[in-house]
Amino acid sequence: MTVTPVDPQPALTLTARALRRRRARRRFTARPLAVAGALGVALVVIFAVFAPLLSPVDPNAPNFDTVLAGPSPHHLAGTDQLGRDVLSRLFYGARSALLAGVLSTLLATVVAVPVGLLAGYYRRILDAVVMRIMDVALAFPFLVLAVGLAAVLGPSLVNATLALGIAQIPVIVRITRGEVLAARELDYVAASVVNGSGSATIMARQILPNVLSPVVVQATLTIPTAIVGAAILSYLGLGVQPPTADWGAMLSEARIYLSQAPWLGVFPGLAIFLTALSFNLLGDGVRDALDPRMRP
Amino acid sequence: MRWYLTRRVAASLLTLFLATIVVFLGVRALPGDPAVALSAESNDPAVVAAIQHKYHLDEPVVSQYGHWLGLALTGDLGDSPLTRLPVSSVLANRIPVTVELTLLALVIGLVIGVPAGVIAAVRPGRITDYLASGVALAGLSIPHFWFGIVLILLLAVHLHLLPAAGFVPILQDPVSNLLHMLMPAFVLGAGLAAVIMRQTRSAMLESLGADYIRTARAKGLSEWSVVTVHALRNSLVTVVTVFGLQLGALIGGVVTIEQVFDIPGIGKLTLDSVFQRDYPTLQGVVLLTAAAYILVNLLVDLTYTVINPRIRVTGAPT
Question: How much of chain A exceeds pLDDT 70, in percent?
């Protein structure tokens, strides 16, 4: 007698998934603040990509005739201590903010999800070892860990991105592992086991798609933290180095000129704030769309 | 309960032990030779060799770690090559400054966050809810070091209401101390308030929809009593948990805020030791931070078991 394997994921599940996706999209677009966040993020991406076209002048070109000039029709956001156009530097600064913020979170997710998946699926010794390592990493506050790693790696945008990425890994591992622990007890996983599917197939086809929502939510909500973290590292001299245009580095360079040229402190900070706010609004929207139960 | 406590304390001690290894190896991974740094950048090979021998830097790493841990357990974290002072006494001088700043920030965070969360939850969907939630979201997004800079520009440079930066010991002049601490503590507390507000609102909304609240109202209790005595009390578990989770952000915030406001606490010491390559101090300060973080999280977990009796019954938090 031959046993015909039962497909644990019939076509109906795919339709259900497509429906879920459509509902999530509707929930997202129904929230004006989430849409505003998405537009804000899109705007920052446009600034970063088209910085050479949007910038009135070269962001690193000094002009000693217009040192510390206030905002005017010629220089909408004023000039800095070297006469460089602040608006141009703000456009170019969006590049490092996005690179460090988004790439570090992406790096952390790519590393942490498989680790959390394996730990949660196999449990026992692997889980104990992984979680102990994560506990130790979590014993160091995010920023202290990022500062320490950036100091070890040396100050640069790439190293700041790496440092921020590594510092984010423990939280994402924990979330993934927690979700996997819950998911592997569900009926459809048991059905796959009975059906004779291998561990790799079960993890990739059954568990992973079902634990991705909270991970995506966490990642989206972590991006603004990473963007602010990158600005802090640059402000402290551990990230992007002058003369490269970077919002954190711009604030750091502006420190001694703030009383005479307050715009140097206001505009880069506003850029960081509005970018982080846009990502937070987007993250809240994604969370409500994918998993409304998680809404605070 | 006892088994849970023992297990939780043992796990914390193991984490702390592993953290010492990370700190030790991490500091050794920093660029530059620690012996050269300890010799105040002397290039004399004899001096460097003598320092290597004195601090066991010429021995295998495991042996170096053993020496360092043994001394650390007795409170001897070595001397700073820059100031020639024992690291433990430098830390002892800086700890009260950071503790004061953190406690003030915590008070500000709770005083703003809890009532704002309650007010938002009591009238969900109203203007107060939108206002509190909007301010909280802004508080979460604002880079605190920049918020500090803006406040300095506004309150110190333009309005001359508060000192721009610096620190006065509390025993020397309590009023001046408070005036100097007000801005940094507010900046640090604002971020905490935003998180506490959002979590309090969420927990209160859940509590206010529960059956026991309907029962309390049916008994004829005043709305004030229903909200504060019943709903808020049950929502406090969330606030305590949030505090544990936010402590890391608070310690991280201290690093930048102390730098912006020139406060001689642990945060500023961390950065100073990174930039001056003062390895013994950096080792001590990071170890202290990790130990404090582990200890407070342990205390938060224990408080959690006191507030939430279900944990005592089941033996572990979910």
Answer: 93
Give the whole-angstrom CA distance, residue A234 versus residue A211. 34
**Among residues A124, A56, A115, A123, which one has the least CA distance to residue A90?**
A56
Burial bucket for residue A242 (CB in 10 Å: 0-12, 13-18, 19+): middle
Contact B77, B91 (CB under 8 A): yes
Model pLDDT, residue B67: 87
Put simply, whether the predicted model's pTM sits higher than 0.90 gets the answer: no
Tokens of B123: 């009238």
Q: With CA atoms as reference, report the closest residue to B167 among B106, B101, B103.
A: B101
Using a CB-CB cut-off of 8 Å, the residues of chain A touching B249 are 141-143
Q: Report, as an integer, the average pLDDT of B251-278.
A: 89
Residue of A nearest to B256 (CA): A232
Instruction: Please state, in angstroms and rounded to a whole number, the distance separating the CA atoms of residues A136 and B54.
Output: 30
End-to-end CA distance of chain A: 54
Q: Check CB contact under 8 Å for B146 and A151.
A: no
Ordered DSSP codes for chain A: --PPPP-SS-HHHHHHHHHHHHHHHHHHHT-HHHHHHHHHHHHHHHHHHTHHHH-SS-TT---TTSTTPPS-SSSTT-B-TT--BHHHHHHHHHHHHHIIIIIHHHHHHHHHHHHHHHHHHH-HHHHHHHHHHHHHHHTS-HHHHHHHHHHHH-SSHHHHHHHHHHHHHHHHHHHHHHHHHHHTTSHHHHHHHHTT--HHHIIIIIIHHHHHHHHHHHHHHHHHHHHHHHHHHHHTTSSSPTTS--HHHHHHHHGGGTTT-THHHHHHHHHHHHHHHHHHHHHHHHHHHH-GGG--
Q: Specify burial of residue B307 (Cβ count, 10 A radius: 0-12, 13-18, 19+).
A: middle
- Interface contact B16-A272, CB threshold 8 A: no
Chain B residues whose beta carbon lies within 8 Å of the beta carbon of residue A259: 153, 157
pLDDT for the residue numbered B92: 94
Give the ipTM: 0.80
